[in-house]
Amino acid sequence: MARLLQDPSKFHPSEWQRRVGIDLVHDEVEQELVKEAEVLQGIIALLGRTLEQTNEQIRQNRSAKYNLEMDLKDKFTALTIDDYCASLTNDTPHIIYAENAMKLEANFVSPEDWIDFSNINVEKADKQRNNSLALKALIDGILSQTVNDMHKQCEMVNTAFRNRIKEVKDAKHKLETLLAMVMDETASQEKNIAALKKAIADKEGPVKVAQTRLEVRNHRPNVELCYDTVHSSLMSEVQEITKNIQRLKDALAQAEIELKGLSCRQLSLEEEIKVKENTLYIDEVLCMQMRESLCINHY
């Protein structure tokens, strides 16, 4: 958990440009990642305040402990002195006249003050102990709630990722299916163009023969240059072949336009598929594998 809370931006793809092109959309994954970042930032702020409160409580505990230790130390010293005094007799060596012993020092306290001083130290210590127990319970609740919140939002993000990955895979499959159809149609159109070109080439021989016949017959001498049935048939033949060739050329031009459109469509589909592959690599490989390494255990 500590690793995840160090710097959420390191672990959130929402801080990156996760996708490109048409896939750069504010999708459910993006929305849940933003929520997760907000949850983590809120938790960091809450834990920061709790840490400050804990440090202050530790300071208060140490102060109460110090006061108790000093009071105990003084009482142990006083008890040692009183025990020594109680053991003195007329025969005790080294007893002396102390002319100033009857003088009351300025820092003398009354028995009531003496009792109150210790009671106050004990009461302060008890109060800080109770505060510590309450703070510990509060901290346990905060840690449990924050871990649950992180786990819940983490699952929301992971679910959004899985749904999005499925959507992208489905879209990629449809694009690949459409691409296969376009490629099949492209291959068919290329065959059609090849057949039209061959058909046009096949017409070149007959039209040349018919036009050559007409040209040669135009050289018949004098009255033999007659617009007879043969000549009329040759003219009709040339016109018919020429019309057929033009129709084939028109069909060829249309087929080449359609082939160009298919090529553009193929390039567009291939680019869209690359975008989907990039999105899948980022979401499924980079993001999900990274998120799987950030296991959030229940507190």
What is the topology?
Elements: H1 2-6, H2 28-87, H3 111-217, H4 229-292
Helix pairs in contact: 2-3, 3-4
Descriptive overview:
It is rod-shaped, with a radius of gyration of 50 Å. It contains four helices and no strands. The protein has 299 residues and is an all-alpha fold.
Low-confidence stretches: 1-16
Radius of gyration: 50 Å
Sketch the topology as an H/E string, one letter per element.
Answer: HHHH
* Beta-strand residue percentage: under 5%
The first-to-last residue Cα distance is: 10 Å
**Portion in helices:** over 70%
Secondary structure class reads: mainly alpha
- Summed up, the helix count is 4
Shape: rod-shaped
Oligomer: single chain
Number of strand elements: 0
Mean pLDDT equals: 87
Output the keywords.
299 residues, mainly alpha, 4 helices, 79% helix, rod-shaped, disordered N terminus
